[in-house]
Design brief:
Elements: E1 2-6, E2 9-13, H1 22-30, E3 48-56, E4 62-70, E5 83-85, H2 98-105, H3 115-127, H4 134-141, H5 152-162, H6 169-172, H7 174-183, E6 190-193, E7 198-201, H8 205-214, E8 219-221, H9 228-232, E9 240-243, E10 253-255, E11 259-263, H10 268-278, H11 280-287, H12 292-297, H13 300-305, H14 313-319, E12 323-328, E13 331-336, H15 337-340, E14 341-343, E15 346-347, E16 354-361, E17 367-374, E18 385-394, E19 397-406, E20 413-414, H16 416-422, H17 429-442, H18 453-472
Parallel strand pairs: 1-5, 7-9, 8-9
Antiparallel strand pairs: 1-2, 3-4, 3-5, 6-7, 10-11, 11-16, 12-13, 12-16, 14-15, 17-18, 18-19, 19-20
Protein name: Xanthine dehydrogenase small subunit
GO molecular function: 2 iron, 2 sulfur cluster binding; FAD binding; iron ion binding; xanthine dehydrogenase activity
Pfam families: CO_deh_flav_C, FAD_binding_5, Fer2, Fer2_2
């Protein structure tokens, strides 16, 4: 059984299809049809809901963290122990919520289909903002698309709703909600079981290892932003899933003198602060990683584990010399990330083995790290090419080079010939041109609807040239730039 709060209503579910998304649960099982399906792929934001989760800050104070999510990509099992808030829950005692009023008063809606999603993103923004912030408003709304109104009045609604905000019914009932969430906090393995399909929800790494060993055919579910597409887009059935989002050990970020250890189930939005502090280019790329709704769900381990050749984080992690800790039963092994990827969607992971955490070396003064993403639009788009460069230069001579690319091969990989052309050579234009030519030996990219093979190779070479120019002229700030 799993338990969660639907606003303030306790819901206990057991005999429920684990393949059921929160979107369809709301619409078909609860009768809350305000949440809309626009794309069923996490691109449009019409299905946005907010999930509240009990958190404890550094001072030991308990509070509820509210986050916007795409309900079309969220399976119901991930709600275990949390609070789900939909657009119907905002109106209170006959009065519209302040974010709803702002949308009305700023004329932020026309046809209205996208409006519930915008309202929920604004609600999450209001809950996480103390004052109006133009950049945060753009970030909060970047995952919501409107086809008729235009965004100016919606951004005006964001400013109005966050400026001088007043306590609402959720603030008034926070202590009560915290108490109820503590009451339903999972203490044992949860499960949804419809007879022919099941999803198990372990709480510890040891439980996860035991369950995965017993069900090696199971699909691991973390954020589900990729896995859920098999259900929503390809109409496949997932007979057995294991949801890892309640394994606290896999959601930790620990900083040591020489490394950062990030649990594989840590949401990308939670990774931002630690990675941005060490590597600002990594932080900039995370801002362009899909939408805020996706970053609130998607995990660093999932972005590695799905072995996509165009995943944004693997090239950066490979260039930084990151490692993954793989767990199977009571056995653990540490593998360099560039050895994890073998072929298209093929990895070194063994049966019943899972990524427990990612180890990222901390930055040093000698590193010259930059990252670049080429995509058709700036926000919420998949890379055509993603490049990460990490050089060490001593007395004008390149002593070490790690150059990694996504979108250039069947896997994210290092450019071995390019690195060889750089190491031991002076860091000058002639050497960079030689390294650019070597990229043609490292990669034979494919053509697809995102880019032709010629465009990809030329872009990769130009990004290396860009890297060199920026290091020679550090006042130029054009990193992580999109190209059309």
């Amino acid at each position: 059984m799993i338990q969660f709060l639907l606003n303030q209503e306790l819901r206990s579910e057991h005999a429920l299809d684990p393949n059921l998304t929160v979107l369809n649960y709301l619409r078909e099982h609860v009768g809350k049809s305000g949440t809309k399906e626009g794309c069923a792929s996490g691109d449009c934001g019409a299905c946005t809901v907010v999930v509240g989760e009990l958190q404890t800050d550094d001072a030991g104070r308990e509070h509820i963290r509210y986050r916007s999510l795409n309900s079309c990509l969220t399976f119901v099992s991930s709600l275990h122990g949390k609070q789900l808030i939909s657009v119907e829950d905002l109106k209170h005692q006959g009065e519209l919520h302040s974010v709803q009023k702002a949308m009305v008063e700023c004329h932020g809606s026309q046809c209205g289909f996208c409006t519930p999603g915008f309202v929920m993103s604004l609600f999450a923004l209001q809950k996480n903002s103390d004052a109006p912030d133009h950049a945060k408003a753009h970030e909060a709304l970047a995952g919501n698309l409107c086809r008729c109104t235009g965004y100016r009045p919606i951004l005006a609604a964001a400013e109005q709703s966050c400026c001088g905000k007043q306590p609402d019914q959720f603030d008034a009932r926070e202590a009560e909600t915290i108490a109820r969430l503590k009451t339903i906090a999972p203490t044992d393995i949860g499960e949804l079981n419809s007879g022919d399909k099941r999803c198990l929800v372990p709480l510890t790494v040891a439980d996860l290892a035991d369950i995965y060993d017993a069900y090696p055919q199971a699909r691991l579910l973390a954020g589900g932003t990729d896995l859920a597409l098999e259900v929503t887009q390809f109409h496949r059935t997932l007979p057995v899933m294991i949801y890892v989002g309640n394994v606290a050990e896999m959601k930790r970020i620990e900083t040591f003198e020489d490394r950062i250890e990030i649990g594989a189930a840590t949401a990308l939005s939670d990774c931002y602060e630690a990675l941005n502090a060490e590597y600002p280019d990594f932080g900039e790329l995370l801002h362009r990683f899909a939408s805020l709704q996706i970053r609130n769900q998607g995990t660093l381990g999932g972005n590695i584990g799905n072995a996509s050749p165009i995943g944004d984080s693997p090239p950066l992690l490979i260039a930084l010399g990151a490692q993954v800790v793989l767990c199977k039963g009571e056995t653990r092994r540490t593998l360099n990330l560039d050895d994890y990827f073998i072929d298209y969607k093929v990895t070194a992971r063994q049966e019943s083995e899972f990524i427990e955490k990612i180890i990222v070396p901390r930055a040093t003064a000698e590193q010259l790290f930059r990252a670049y993403k080429v995509s058709k639009r700036l926000d919420d788009d998949i890379s055509a090419v993603c490049a990460a460069f990490n050089l060490r230069v001593e007395n004008g001579v390149i002593t070490d080079a790690r150059m990694a690319f996504g979108g250039m091969a069947a896997i994210p990989k290092r450019a071995a010939h390019c690195e060889a052309a750089l190491i031991g050579a002076p860091f000058n234009n002639a050497v960079v041109e030689r390294a650019c030519a070597a990229l043609a030996e490292d990669f034979t990219p494919l053509s697809d609807f995102r880019a032709s093979k010629e465009y990809r190779l030329l872009s990769a070479q130009n990004l290396l040239r860009k890297y060199f120019i920026e290091l020679q002229t550090p006042h130029i700030e054009t990193r992580v730039t999109a190209y059309v």
